[in-house]
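Subject: Interface between my chains keeps coming out wrong

I've been trying for a while to get a sensible model of this assembly. When I model each chain on its own everything looks fine, but I need the whole thing in one frame so I can look at the contacts. Pasting all components below, labels as-is. Any help appreciated, I'm running out of ideas.
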Amino acid sequence: MSKKKFVKDSMVNMTEFVLPNDTNTLNNLMGGRMMHFMDIAAAISAQKHCNRIVVTASVDHVSFKKGISLGSVVTLRSFVTRSFNSSMEVRIEVWVEDLTRNTKEKSNEAYFTFVAVDQNGNPINVPPIHPETDVEKAYYEGALRRRQLRLILDGKMEPEDADELKAIFYDAKDTKDS
Amino acid sequence: MSKKKFVKDSMVNMTEFVLPNDTNTLNNLMGGRMMHFMDIAAAISAQKHCNRIVVTASVDHVSFKKGISLGSVVTLRSFVTRSFNSSMEVRIEVWVEDLTRNTKEKSNEAYFTFVAVDQNGNPINVPPIHPETDVEKAYYEGALRRRQLRLILDGKMEPEDADELKAIFYDAKDTKDS
Amino acid sequence: MSKKKFVKDSMVNMTEFVLPNDTNTLNNLMGGRMMHFMDIAAAISAQKHCNRIVVTASVDHVSFKKGISLGSVVTLRSFVTRSFNSSMEVRIEVWVEDLTRNTKEKSNEAYFTFVAVDQNGNPINVPPIHPETDVEKAYYEGALRRRQLRLILDGKMEPEDADELKAIFYDAKDTKDS
Amino acid sequence: MSKKKFVKDSMVNMTEFVLPNDTNTLNNLMGGRMMHFMDIAAAISAQKHCNRIVVTASVDHVSFKKGISLGSVVTLRSFVTRSFNSSMEVRIEVWVEDLTRNTKEKSNEAYFTFVAVDQNGNPINVPPIHPETDVEKAYYEGALRRRQLRLILDGKMEPEDADELKAIFYDAKDTKDS
Amino acid sequence: MSKKKFVKDSMVNMTEFVLPNDTNTLNNLMGGRMMHFMDIAAAISAQKHCNRIVVTASVDHVSFKKGISLGSVVTLRSFVTRSFNSSMEVRIEVWVEDLTRNTKEKSNEAYFTFVAVDQNGNPINVPPIHPETDVEKAYYEGALRRRQLRLILDGKMEPEDADELKAIFYDAKDTKDS
Amino acid sequence: MSKKKFVKDSMVNMTEFVLPNDTNTLNNLMGGRMMHFMDIAAAISAQKHCNRIVVTASVDHVSFKKGISLGSVVTLRSFVTRSFNSSMEVRIEVWVEDLTRNTKEKSNEAYFTFVAVDQNGNPINVPPIHPETDVEKAYYEGALRRRQLRLILDGKMEPEDADELKAIFYDAKDTKDS
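Reply #2:
Try treating it as a single job with all components included. I did that and got this:
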């Protein structure tokens, strides 16, 4: 698989119709069901990048802004932002449409991380990704910082070693002080 | 609802059997399905605390350590750690058992946040919680710090205002320097 | 598997949220769906006792007292009461909570029987159980009587050989007559 | 609804294909899923008899003789045997076919009881049934005895008042003794 | 498998209860879910005819006359009309009952085609069918004409070679002209 | 809703992962499940065009070329080709990807017809569509011919009145004869 891999190679567009069993007693989409949609879209993106079986390694902070009602159409777009050895970060963006009211708005976005594995479930290296547009490059750069936060939250990195992440706190302070 | 609310009042024990449709092509539980289980357990905990309809507001960073195979038994335990106006933080702990091998191990834990709403979906205040044991008190205290991280990640708080959270970076540094 | 087995080793707590597809046209949980919940909880209890694959052998009489509405939380507790060669009797107790009204009541209970099998589906012996509390001992004793009723209803025992069971009719009569 | 009601008016034929999510780790149909199939067939029979919404009131003893493998075809036939005020007893017979081996055999049978209710869930009277064939008449007669066993098992009848049922024990004894 | 095969050997009766997740926002059964029911019934008919694994090869034009509401009972009857080498045409007839209103009416009918395959998925010959009644013979004859339309629509036959089908257009014209 | 409607306004991209319960005993996607996917994508396209609730009116001939295995990714693209009073024809194109083998191929295509309805289920007029590209115009023109075939197959048009459709038979003949 020596072919050079671009962000667009991993692009996934998914459309889901909110059905009764997906909703809570207010007839709104349950958060866990939305996470399920996001995981499937993101896993397919990761598989498109590495052409391997992938397993979900982590889910970053996700927040849900407002209720999504029964009968709404949920559109997801996901793509790999960067790979690290055997892992891939995938960005997922979600929009919600109410087709009878003809409205469409951004619902939320999230980053999921996947690990490529062989048939025995052991991690296996994945190809690097080549960001092309400015937006893709920004996601590619930001991936380092998000990865450090993940490592700290998982207890695998000491906060003072998180150079990329610390900058947020110090820089913000400096900026404000000056 | 003047009754004093304790952590144990919101305790939920949930047991799920991993079925074929919950698994990926390696016959392992898909991450999104696990998030779905966690969301349902956590939502019931939040409902037990406030006796109101609740909606998922956010999901904190979750990481998945190892594959959970088809036929495994997943046990979830969830409880409210602290409430803030109309929102409640819920801690979810997950264990996995392979009953034919008689093994049981901690899989992961996570924090989900829920908002109590009225019949029109508008936020409504929830009662405070009274932590009793040392462990409950530790989760209660930590809730402030986790909340600041959530607010920063959602762009609702400036990093330099996150007093609770900054301590992690500064203190860690001081500790190491000294 | 020389470890001594107690009732508490097979204890399962399960929590289910009643979703739209679980309900009939009155928005009440369908009896068959409840039986499905009970079977899963009970099968996990039997598996915890014998650490083998188990198959449902029989379901004793179950009665449903009142409707359980959409959005209710169903809590099941199950445990092995006694084992016989390759079979285990499991008691399942069900409670229903309406969390917005803050009510919780016993819904029903039932006994399911499971057989432990090897990979080819052939019956295989299971360990005996050691009842500890008075309540556990009462279920252990009653298991003999319930087993005789099962054997008669399955046409595998002549009614006049059901010593344990006949006592119900004769004793009751004697008690009343005296 | 003055039309005279016959057993054939409530006849339901149902065919189910055993799918992966219906099976346990031996790839056999789970008992609880079978109960779910039986409940749906039986509920439709009861609805055909009374043209009302019905709710499951009780399930009689069911035993499962042998494993039913993934991909099998399960055929159910159900019909009302007798009605009592607001309740109806439904007999369900189940066959299993392995279409690639061209085998078909009786799996099991069971009796479920349903209650007809109005829109508020209150019991409402149902029409009597008119058994026509000898087989239908035998089921009609047996319904009395099965009902007494249900009432005893539910603690609603004293064993010594169960005239129909007691006969099983006494008569069997007499028959054997003579 | 030298046994002579009749239409009645492949007869399947299926009954489905329309559940919430099967319905659209008008609470009517979705067309795609109905197609799913039809495919399962028809596949079982084809399997009964050939005692082989079968795969759906094509679906003929299906039209849906009117909405089928939540809680309705859908009854399907399917049977093989004719076989061609490795393929079988199956006719499916669908009725809808509203049991609380005691109405039953024909909903629609359709023809699905299946191919029998071996364990590797390669086509394998199936036995001929022996129509017995006049109705069965009419479906048997019509199968040729429907097959030509399928071949044309799939681009596998030139319209001018479709002798059976062309008759519809020419004969109809002649009939009208005369 | 005076806005001019284009084909691109109704474009839907849907991605589905083939799960165990979607497959038959050969581990291939069942035809009926594929129809279900197609119906959902197409219904969303129709809703995007008319911003109304829509119901499936008919499904044109669909053929399935080869098996789609468990774990494959199915990609659907659908769009409205033409509207007629209250009905809309939607074209659905399906591709199948095996991501571990990095293959993608066209699976099949189909035309579904939907009717826009008001809250009582009565048909309601939909806006015309404005085809822009040559491909869109070709689908727009072909829609007339396909509609005549549908009307004939539904018995709502006499074959000799199907001017658009008859041309296929006559022209083909002429072409061959000349």
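Reply #3:
Confirming on my end. The longest helix of chain D spans residues 31-50.
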